[in-house]
Write a structure and sequence with these properties.
The protein is of the alpha/beta class. The protein has helices at 22-28, 31-37, 65-84, 98-109, 139-143, 179-188, 195-201, 203-214, 249-262, 280-294, and strands spanning 3-8, 42-47, 88-93, 114-118, 169-174, 191-194, 222-227, 265-271. It has an 8-stranded parallel β-sheet, with helices on both faces. Helix 3 (65-84) packs parallel to helix 4 and helix 9 packs parallel to helix 10 (280-294). The two termini are 21 Å apart. The chain binds the ligand CN[C@](CCCC[B-](O)(O)O)(CCN1CCCCC1)C(=O)O and manganese (II) ion (2 copies).
Length: 304
């Protein structure tokens, strides 16, 4: 399958500037060359541009609502087009609020998709449970059908159609979950493999159980939303909300190898790379690690 590369230089889902430099940093680390070396054809769709919305005052406690809402409407359309053209869509972020648009867009073409959310965080606060008002901690709440009655309308989000069921979502890597998110995960029985399960079961068992939980028949299209802060901050330091005790380099690679083995990876987000938060060495380490983990999605074999 050809890979459709889409840059999403966006940062307004959180307060720290710099994630808009994520796409460039990952490109400069050689993502296109790496994919082509693996025999993968790459169609680079360039970077999306986003309109400046003035007077984007908070809606309730939600920050930059119109900017984030409008951006994700554009993201959704761009991803839909790429998937519709039969390409594997690789979205380079940008903060994780982009995943509302990428999953929404993917679901317009593949309504039967399942989501693997690899992250230190659950990113499922509603506007009412969020302690920060930063939308990168809320993207899933706007697209999960079962939360429809719990999410107030937010300026700029009128276009969103919930398109994901909680039974089609699985978390891997959780280690910093807010009380409201804990309540939602519990209430709706969302499958979640926190770092405790990773330690207890081992990553092999986690992947087996995770995929069996959301796709027992082994037939459904997979959307991977990969927040680089899922990995341990010692290997991806340049990110906005680092949390100790993350996935190791090898665990990250194993997750991607198992997803690649399904042959059903259709759409991949790479979120929360923030070059402005690290020094040169930290930024190089972050993008090199991201590439070495990500290339396992595209058939790079550790055994040669
Ligand atoms: C855990 N929830 C946070 C972080 C969301 C991270 C988004 B991601 O895309 O990087 O995963 C943090 C909320 N805490 C902030 C510090 C005080 C306690 C609450 C939020 O703001 O919702
Ligand atoms: Mn995170
Ligand atoms: Mn995230």
């Amino acid at each position: 399958k050809k890979v459709g590369l889409l840059g999403i230089p966006f940062s307004k889902g959180q307060p720290r500037g710099g994630t808009e430099q994520g796409p460039q940093a990952i490109r400069e680390a050689g993502i296109v060359e790496k994919l082509e070396q693996l025999g993968t054809q790459v169609c680079d769709h360039g970077d999306l541009t986003f309109d400046y919305i003035e007077n984007d005052t908070p809606d309730g406690n939600v920050k930059n609502p119109r900017t984030v809402g409008h951006a994700n409407k554009k993201i959704s359309k761009a991803v839909s087009d790429i998937i519709y053209n039969g390409q594997l869509c690789l979205n380079l972020g940008g903060d994780h609020s982009m995943a509302m648009g990428t999953i929404h867009g993917h679901a317009q073409v593949e309504p039967d998709l399942v989501v693997v959310w690899v992250d230190a965080h659950a990113d499922i606060n509603t506007p009412l449970t969020s302690p920060s008002g930063n939308i990168h901690g809320m993207p899933l709440s706007f697209i999960v059908k079962e939360l429809d009655g719990y999410v107030p309308t937010v300026k700029g989000f009128e276009w969103v159609k919930p398109c994901l069921s909680v039974k089609d979502l699985v978390y891997i890597g959780l280690r910093d979950v807010d009380p409201g998110e804990r309540w939602i995960i519990e209430k709706f029985g969302i499958k979640a493999f926190s770092m405790q399960e990773v330690d207890k079961l081992g990553i092999r068992e986690v992947m087996e159980q995770a995929l069996k939980a959301i796709d027992p028949s082994g037939t459904r299209p997979i959307h991977l939303s990969f927040d680089v802060d899922a990995l341990d901050p010692t290997i991806t330091p340049s990110t906005g909300t680092p949390v100790h005790g993350g996935l190791s380099f090898r665990e990250g690679q194993y997750i991607m190898e198992e997803l690649a083995n399904t042959g059903r990876l259709n759409c991949i987000d790479v979120a929360e790379v923030n070059p402005s938060l690290g020094n040169k060495e930290e930024n190089t380490l972050t993008t090199e690690t991201t590439l070495e983990v990500l290339n396992k999605c595209f058939g790079q074999k550790r055994g040669g």
